[in-house]
Write a structure and sequence with these properties.
Layout (H helix, E strand, L loop, with lengths): L4 H28 L10 H55 L6 H22 L20 E4 L2 E4 L7 E5 L2 E4 L4 H6 L1 E2 L5 E5 L8 E7 L10 E7 L2 E6 L4 E6 L5 E4 L2 E6 L7 E6 L2 E2 L1 H13 L9 H57 L3 H26 L3 H5 L1
Antiparallel strand pairs: 1-2, 3-4, 5-14, 6-13, 7-12, 8-9, 8-13, 9-10, 11-12
Helix pairs in contact: 1-7, 2-3, 2-6, 3-5, 5-6
C-alpha cells in the first residue's frame, strides 16, 4: 500500500486533534477540580459516586427529620415543665385551704387562684409550635384540643402519636396526644380510690391509703361502714362483710391487701367507698377542687366535706404530677435517642463525603504533570513532523 503525503498529513492532523482534546480535558479538570465531568470518562467511579450521593441525601434527610423532631420535643418538654409547676402551685393551694383556720373569704380567694391555674393549664394544653400546629392534638394538629366545660374540659384531638424517621429502620414519636397526657390520669393512689359518703354526718376524714399485698387485692369495690360509734365493718361488692373492727382515729383499716387510714370521729351510718382507680382528666380534678372551695360549709359536719374533697384532690394532683413526670421522662429518652442517631448520621455523612471526594476530586500534582507532558508531546510532534516533511503549512499550525 502506497503512503501518500496527504495520508501522512491526515494522520498527523488526527493525532494533533487527539492531543489537543486531551490537553483541553486536563485543563478543564484543573479548572473544575474534578477528576472527570461526565460519567463516560470514568463509568466505575461515576456509578459509585451516584450510589454514595443517594445514601448521603437520605442520611441528610434523616438528619433534617431529627432536627425537626428535636424542636417538637423541646417544645413539649417545656410545656410539661410548665404543667408540673402549675400543678405544684395548685397542690400548695389545696394544702393551704385544708387549714382549719381559713376563713370563707380566704377559701374564695384560693378558689380564684385555682381558676387562674386552670386557665394556665388550658393554655399549656393548647400549646402550638412555630408552624401553628397544636402539639397535644395527636394527628389533628390543626384542631384546638381542649376547651373548658362545667365539669372539666373536652378533648377534640385524637389518640394519634406522630412519628418521624431517624434512620432506615428507626422512628421516634414526636408528639404525645392530650388524651394521654391530660385525661388518662388514675384517681386516688393509682390503684384504688376512697370517697366519703355524701350523707355522712361525722367528722371522719380520709388519710393515707396503700396496697399492702397486690396479690390479695382482686380489684374489687368495698364499703367501709360505721355501724356504731367506734365500730366498723368492711363490705365487698356482694354486701358480704370481709372484716370488722374497732375504730381508732389515725389507725389503718386493713382488708384484702389494702389499707385505708381515717381520722376524726365518723358517726354511725357513715360510709366510705373504696373502688378501683379510674381515669380522670386533670381539668376535672381542678374543677372538683374549685367546686369544693366554693361550697359553703355544712352546718352539721363543718369543714369535714371540704377536708375530704381536698384530700382527694391532693391525691389526684399527685397522680397528675406522676403522669407528667412519666411522659416527660419519655420525652427526654426520645431526645437522647435523636442525639445519638444524629451523631451516627454525622459520622456516616462525613465518611460518604470523603469517599465521594476521593472518587471525584482531581489529583492536582498528577494533572499538572500530565498537562506538562501533553504540551511537550504536542510541541515535539509538531516540530518533528515539520522537520521531516519540511512543509511550510505546519509552521503556521505550531
Amino acid at each position: 500500500m502506497r503512503i501518500t503525503q496527504g495520508m501522512e498529513q491526515s494522520q498527523f492532523l488526527s493525532s494533533l486533534n487527539e492531543l489537543e482534546s486531551n490537553i483541553a480535558t486536563t485543563q478543564n479538570g484543573i479548572s473544575s477540580g474534578l477528576a472527570y465531568t461526565t460519567a463516560s470518562e470514568n463509568p466505575v467511579s461515576a456509578g459509585l459516586v451516584s450510589g454514595y450521593n443517594q445514601v448521603l441525601a437520605q442520611s441528610q434527610q434523616f438528619t433534617s427529620n431529627g432536627q425537626s423532631a428535636q424542636g417538637s420535643l423541646n417544645i413539649e418538654d417545656n410545656a410539661l415543665t410548665q404543667v408540673q409547676s402549675q400543678l405544684q402551685s395548685l397542690r400548695d393551694l389545696a394544702l393551704e385551704a385544708n387549714n382549719a383556720t381559713e376563713s370563707g373569704a380566704n377559701l374564695s380567694a384560693i378558689a380564684t387562684q385555682a381558676q387562674q391555674i386552670q386557665q394556665s393549664l388550658l393554655s399549656i394544653a393548647n400549646t402550638q409550635d412555630g408552624s401553628g400546629n397544636y402539639i397535644f392534638a395527636g394527628y389533628s394538629t390543626q384542631t384546638q384540643p381542649f376547651a373548658l366545660t362545667a365539669t372539666g374540659a373536652t378533648y377534640s384531638g385524637d389518640q394519634g402519636q406522630r412519628q418521624v424517621q431517624l434512620a432506615a429502620a428507626q422512628t421516634v414519636v414526636v408528639g404525645d396526644n392530650g388524651d394521654l397526657v391530660f385525661n388518662q390520669i388514675k384517681t386516688g393512689n393509682g390503684t384504688f380510690n376512697v370517697t366519703a359518703g355524701a350523707a355522712n354526718t361525722g367528722s371522719g376524714i380520709i388519710g393515707a391509703t396503700s396496697v399492702t399485698d397486690p396479690a390479695a387485692y382482686g380489684g374489687g369495690s368495698y364499703t367501709i361502714q360505721f355501724t356504731a360509734p367506734g365500730a366498723y365493718q368492711v363490705l365487698n361488692s356482694a354486701n358480704v362483710a370481709v372484716t370488722t373492727g374497732t375504730y381508732t382515729s389515725g389507725q389503718a383499716i386493713s382488708f384484702d391487701g389494702l389499707q385505708v387510714t381515717l381520722s376524726g370521729t365518723p358517726a354511725a351510718g357513715d360510709t366510705f367507698a373504696v373502688a378501683p382507680s379510674t381515669d380522670q382528666s386533670m381539668f376535672t380534678t381542678v374543677q372538683n377542687l374549685i367546686n369544693a372551695l366554693q361550697q359553703p360549709p355544712s352546718t352539721s359536719s363543718g369543714t369535714t366535706p371540704l377536708n375530704n374533697s381536698i384530700a382527694g384532690a391532693v391525691d389526684n394532683i399527685d397522680q397528675a404530677l406522676d403522669q407528667i413526670q412519666t411522659v416527660q421522662s419519655s420525652v427526654g429518652a426520645r431526645l437522647n435517642t435523636i442525639t445519638t442517631q444524629q451523631s451516627a448520621a454525622t459520622a456516616q455523612q462525613t465518611q460518604l463525603q470523603q469517599s465521594i471526594s476521593t472518587l471525584q476530586s482531581l489529583n492536582y500534582p498528577q494533572a499538572i504533570t500530565s498537562l506538562d507532558s501533553q504540551n511537550t508531546t504536542l510541541s515535539a510532534a509538531m516540530q518533528a513532523y515539520t522537520l521531516t516533511e519540511g512543509l511550510s503549512l505546519f509552521k503556521y499550525l505550531s
